[in-house]
């Protein structure tokens, strides 16, 4: 029953409702998403599994006509970052080393989304193992930002959840999973002009998320509305017998069940919103700062009280992160040795030769750089000065947040200091690392954060980040919904003028 | 005995690192079971094979077993311990790191008692996971079997307080016994669930420690002993020959065939394991009341039992050793003594070490362990009481025990069914007594002459005549009565 | 015999020669070569030089970390939810006190045979399956 209307119009709520009430079928919806994915000019996908997706959609349609109740994501096509396991699908993590690697199990988050009715259409491109913020460190090619100005040079979708953010912005799917270690959901959300949520560390099970830096890794959601982020969280959150750091969800369920008592005209009334002193945002692009400031004004109109907060160790975030995350990465990526799975490169005669060739040829440049950095900061003679010290300063960063949240409810910052940069720029890695300065601190402290699209103009996209205290995911998402209650439009623009490999 | 070292004025300094597999039947951080000898790679979950995206989940049963050992050895148990990652690459190590405890082990200190009364102080024990197995003798390629990967281990590290190969053997025997008694491990060296690395150095008494050498590939007590002895001689010879450079800090393998240690191709570049706290696992905290519960559940340790058997119950050291070789046997014995009193100890020890253990050793029956017995301590205690009360004589008791071993049942019933009860009936007794008196005139005369001890021979004759069934006390009284009346 | 020495955390290693008087020790090219090998990565000379340069610059940019007074700060290794920092209860699986709890940070259940992956599936993606095993170049000793 395709045809009359856009099967994918609106957000996931809208799509699920239309399927549930019979306006459209799951099959036609998934078919429409697959059709767009096939003709996707932005390079969002690593792989599509059309047959499995359509079969699943037909199964849902049959269940519905058999009178089965419809889950909250009934028939909604979703995309999964290719570092989150989907049984039988390509889980390449954007790496040559895992080219062709198919997962043999489902991530808990995927399992729960599917149980709620979602249909996985494919896995998306990403910076290799989550390392990068441009989408360019991907073995199968870079994704381009769907919100690139017509005729302009191709913009980066951000990263590392580049394909997931672009797929949502391009209207291929209303909802996609990404992963966020230091900003990898929030920054591409800001660049692509969509919403992106990084939950409290432990809120969503990491079982099935291929580890980059375990103590920072989170599975997050990209969507075109804040309410979709809340829905996805409600579906995915909670303890899991396969991740011992995932915590209970009783607080979440209580809050979800409570009636919304907010004044519709002043939904932020009573909210104390923390902001940095201007001097802390000197590196931020003027356009970004202007949009950010304007949105803060809007927050004030909606009832929020702006309170200046000081996080004295915030400025150390990048250094702490780029010591700890590579250290954990060097550990987590040790399993890619050519023995059990992945692409092996035979060279020399010994086991060590084989492992070395496999890893040297399998990992891209940025991953190699970070493994070396991580190996260095953990090695004998350097552990204390770097790893241990960084872990202590991390404590200070977290303590700063805890102290700030004594006097404010949420903290607002720009998500990224710049608008999307042009693909193919050759930049010093340190420049890119510093681009994560505003998203990293919440990751270090394990806090929930959301990026709200406050400008979706091609080439000028800006996101505003809201950070909350640990476990306050719903407060963060509901404040985001207040700032931008509607869904952002998908862009269906033609392929961008600039080309990338 | 390292006599060579002693003759040259050296003492041998030994420290041990002992790995024991915990008998949980599963893995430390993964959900699948483990069985020795299962088909290769048939007991491997996604977690154990380190599929991308998997996480460890601690098995509490393993922690509990590890804590039992720590409590038994009187270790210090901190409130919090943590798991760390130890990194190195090898084909049998799926994650490229082993999860172990470096910075905050679950216990420190403690001691293992030796048979000679000394105790060896421990540095620490920590929990870690085992690696898989690399098979090298099946063709041109090395084959990797991950079944064993992830099996829980505890690694015990002693202080360098052992002074000979005998000390090392004594230590391992004692530790193995405690592991088995606490139910923590099967501790079978042949199956590789108890493995030992040895650090050996020599020095002149009173000197600071000299360079140590680590010995590996020691899969039996005999190898532990032989390798230490060989290594001590090698080191003393090197020092005496003025070639101390032959003793370097290294790992040497024990060549079982040739009975010598040889240097292991050093893994070029000294190890740098880049330890890091494992961010996937929460700290392990153990509540004080939980520790108390575990402590209350601990069995009495074998060396304590042995001391008790010898000092309180008067058993020989040999018998005490036989009875405590297996915990279930010792428990059975304790159960009898508890019911029948300390006085029953010798008799119970005798039956258990002869008839019961004999039955286990006898392969013609189905009995191999205490678990197979069709009776328990209560029946043995009952048997003791039947003898003590004079209802049953010792020869009859042996017959009853034979019946218990084969068929079980109640000793009292067996006495009746076999008609083994001591005969006190005057008519029957008198007939046997008269026969005895008639054929032992000299003893009768002696008794008449005032030597009552001579009655013993007469009682013996009654027992013989009655086929052992006469009640000896009754028979004796009747004999004296008949003699007095004659 | 310093049995315990090997066990001590590798915190007190000697910084490589060339480290500066103050601040953190900086890596020499020889350090990088050793560490690349530890990480099973082979670098040609050109790449080694460029990565070495990157590392030195990156660490120099992070030098500010060395100025933070960390003496009263405990390392933060995981931002763990408070509920997961409570003591373990070593309750038997049948213990009603343990049943129904939402905490699942450790396993209570007995080993589950169904969690072993079917061997054919396990070896399906393996580079060199041999006779139910993972095959690798011959290695006699580690």
TrEMBL record, chain A:
The cross-references to Gene3D superfamilies, in alphabetical order and at most eight, read:
Amidase signature (AS) domain (3.90.1300.10)
User: Which PROSITE patterns did the record assign?
Assistant: AMIDASES
Residues annotated as region Disordered?
132-160
Q: Name one Pfam family in it.
A: Amidase
According to its UniProt entry, one GO biological process term is: translation
Listed GO MF terms: ATP binding; glutaminyl-tRNA synthase (glutamine-hydrolyzing) activity; transferase activity
Q: Where is the active site?
A: 81 (charge relay system), 160 (charge relay system), 184 (acyl-ester intermediate)
Which EC number applies? 6.3.5.7
Its EC top class is ligase
For this protein, the record's InterPro entries field holds:
Amidase (IPR000120), Amidase_CS (IPR020556), Amidase_dom (IPR023631), AS_sf (IPR036928), GatA (IPR004412)
Bias class Polar residues marks the residues at 134-147
Q: Which residues form the Amidase domain?
A: 32-477
Q: Cellular component terms, GO, for this chain's entry?
A: glutamyl-tRNA(Gln) amidotransferase complex
Q: Where is the composition biased (Low complexity)?
A: 150-160
Q: Which keywords accompany this UniProt record?
A: ATP-binding, Ligase, Nucleotide-binding, Protein biosynthesis, Transferase
Query: Which reactions does this protein catalyse?
Result: L-glutamyl-tRNA(Gln) + L-glutamine + ATP + H2O = L-glutaminyl-tRNA(Gln) + L-glutamate + ADP + phosphate + H(+)
Q: How does it assemble?
A: Heterotrimer of A, B and C subunits.
Protein role: Allows the formation of correctly charged Gln-tRNA(Gln) through the transamidation of misacylated Glu-tRNA(Gln) in organisms which lack glutaminyl-tRNA synthetase. The reaction takes place in the presence of glutamine and ATP through an activated gamma-phospho-Glu-tRNA(Gln).
Q: Which NCBIfam families match?
A: gatA (TIGR00132)
Q: Which family does it belong to?
A: Belongs to the amidase family. GatA subfamily.
The name this protein carries in UniProt is Glutamyl-tRNA(Gln) amidotransferase subunit A
Q: Give the organism the record lists.
A: Rohdeia mirabilis
Name of the encoding gene:
gatA
TrEMBL record, chain B:
Q: How does it assemble?
A: Heterotrimer of A, B and C subunits.
**Start and end of every Asn/Gln amidotransferase domain?**
331-483
Which leading EC class covers this enzyme?
ligase
Its family?
A: Belongs to the GatB/GatE family. GatB subfamily.
* InterPro entries in UniProt: Asn/Gln-tRNA_amidoTrfase_suB/E (IPR017959), Asn/Gln-tRNA_Trfase_suB/E_cat (IPR006075), Asn/Gln_amidotransferase (IPR018027), Asn/Gln_tRNA_amidoTrase-B-like (IPR003789), GatB (IPR004413), GatB_Yqey_C_2 (IPR023168), Gln-tRNA_amidoTrfase_suB_CS (IPR017958), Gln_synth/guanido_kin_cat_dom (IPR014746)
Cross-referenced Pfam families: GatB_N, GatB_Yqey
Enzyme nomenclature, EC number: 6.3.5.-
Q: What is this protein called?
A: Aspartyl/glutamyl-tRNA(Asn/Gln) amidotransferase subunit B
Which parts of the chain are coiled coil?
none
Keywords, A to Z, come to: ATP-binding, Ligase, Nucleotide-binding, Protein biosynthesis, Transferase
Its ancestry begins with: Bacteria, Pseudomonadati, Planctomycetota, Planctomycetia, Planctomycetia incertae sedis
A GO BP entry is: glutaminyl-tRNAGln biosynthesis via transamidation
User: What does it do?
Assistant: Allows the formation of correctly charged Asn-tRNA(Asn) or Gln-tRNA(Gln) through the transamidation of misacylated Asp-tRNA(Asn) or Glu-tRNA(Gln) in organisms which lack either or both of asparaginyl-tRNA or glutaminyl-tRNA synthetases. The reaction takes place in the presence of glutamine and ATP through an activated phospho-Asp-tRNA(Asn) or phospho-Glu-tRNA(Gln).
Q: In its keyword annotation, does this UniProt entry include Transferase?
A: yes
Molecular function via GO:
asparaginyl-tRNA synthase (glutamine-hydrolyzing) activity; ATP binding; glutaminyl-tRNA synthase (glutamine-hydrolyzing) activity; transferase activity
Q: Which reaction does it catalyse?
A: L-aspartyl-tRNA(Asn) + L-glutamine + ATP + H2O = L-asparaginyl-tRNA(Asn) + L-glutamate + ADP + phosphate + 2 H(+); L-glutamyl-tRNA(Gln) + L-glutamine + ATP + H2O = L-glutaminyl-tRNA(Gln) + L-glutamate + ADP + phosphate + H(+)
UniProtKB/TrEMBL annotation, chain C:
Q: Which Pfam families match?
A: GatC (PF02686)
Keyword Transferase among UniProt keywords: yes
Question: Which key words are in the record?
Answer: Transferase
Show the InterPro entries listed in the entry. Asp/Glu-ADT_sf_sub_c (IPR036113), GatC (IPR003837)
Single GO term (MF): transferase activity
- One of the protein's GO biological processes: regulation of translational fidelity
Report residue spans for region: Disordered: 1-35, 84-142
Descriptive protein name: Glutamyl-tRNA(Gln) amidotransferase subunit C
> What organism is listed for this UniProt entry?
Rohdeia mirabilis
- Give the source lineage, highest ranks first: Bacteria, Pseudomonadati, Planctomycetota, Planctomycetia, Planctomycetia incertae sedis
